[in-house]
Specification:
The chain is an alpha+beta fold. It has a single domain, classed as 2-Layer Sandwich (Alpha-D-Glucose-1,6-Bisphosphate, Chain A, domain 4), CATH 3.30.530.20. It contains four helices and seven strands.
């Protein structure tokens, strides 16, 4: 699976990245995330681990992502260190006019139950990521 989506948010990159990359905010804008918390001390940086409790395709599960690349206000690349399947999640925050282009990429190999849903899963992940970025946009643009 390799899915990339992007959306323009009418806020500066530093503001968008600070909100989006705060694990406490993840359940507010990432669909399916029931809770999220760091397993390592903040601030976010290379080596930071975040545990998420999520629900997808009727299953609830926990997974841990670790930040492998980090450029404050611009880029965070996280990979699974524990979870139902390996994945790499990339968040990019780039200036776009007076706002920010947020690009979210999810790459991974599904296994077990999720392998059976492989072809459908890619479409579902794309839809979920698009909804997530719309929610992020709505949250950030309605606050001053």
């Amino acid at each position: 699976m390799d899915v990339t989506v992007s959306r323009i948010i009418d806020r500066p990159p530093e503001q968008v990245a600070a909100f989006a990359m705060n694990p406490d905010n993840e359940p507010r804008w990432i669909g399916g995330i029931k809770s999220s918390h760091t397993l390592t001390p903040l601030p976010l940086g290379v080596g930071t681990q975040v545990e998420r409790i999520a629900s997808f395709l009727g299953k609830t599960f926990s997974y841990v992502l670790q930040a492998d690349e980090f450029e404050p206000g611009h880029l965070v690349v996280m990979t699974t260190v524990r979870g139902p399947f390996p994945m790499r999640v990339t968040y990019r925050f780039e200036p776009a006019g007076g706002g920010t282009r947020v690009t979210n990429t999810v790459q991974g190999e599904t296994g077990g139950f999720y392998r059976l849903a492989g072809p459908l899963m890619q479409r579902m992940v794309r839809g979920s990521l698009n909804r997530d970025l719309k929610t992020l946009k709505d949250l950030l643009e309605r606050t001053s």
